[in-house]
Amino acid sequence: MDDSDDGGPRRIELASHKDFAFLIANVRAAAAEHLHAAFPPQSNGGEDELRNEIEAIVDSPSRSGSRKSSIPPMPSEEASISYEPFDAEKRARVAALVSQEEALLEQVAAMKRAGALDAAATGRGVDGSDALLLLLLPPPLERQEGVEERFRGAVGALGRLKRDMPSVVAKMERARVAGEYVRDER
């Protein structure tokens, strides 16, 4: 299969990572030759900023890979697993930390239970002091009951209106259509 249809270079298939490293080294050497030809070193020994920037671009690792190259997967070396010898001090430290964690969890659970009991006791204390709260409340208004009754009646009427409104609108629409029909028949 030839990838040269798109006008670019053909795809390079490499057999190993060493082939890739060899190609990169050759490309960098050729780039260095062209760089020396285009930007010869200065005779006074000074730094050439443009030359340094171009060298940095040529040597950058981001330029080392290409989408036109592929390296088949090579068998990788298995990572060797090494075990540390048993350490009694570390085992004791782990056991101490586990017991400390359990103690802290028990403390948290006890605090949750105590908090709930305190809240319940506080609630019971408020219930006992209702008489004191009644003394602190202002006296009821003279027309309070009448105002509340009228408000409940208005809320009920609005509820009925909201419930009945769609049927009333439908009746009005039917009446309008019937009126237009009678008017057009004459």
UniProtKB/TrEMBL annotation:
It comes from the Eukaryota. This is Kinetochore Mis14. Residues 60-71 have a biased composition (Low complexity). It comes from Beauveria brongniartii RCEF 3172. Residues 57-83 are annotated as: Disordered.
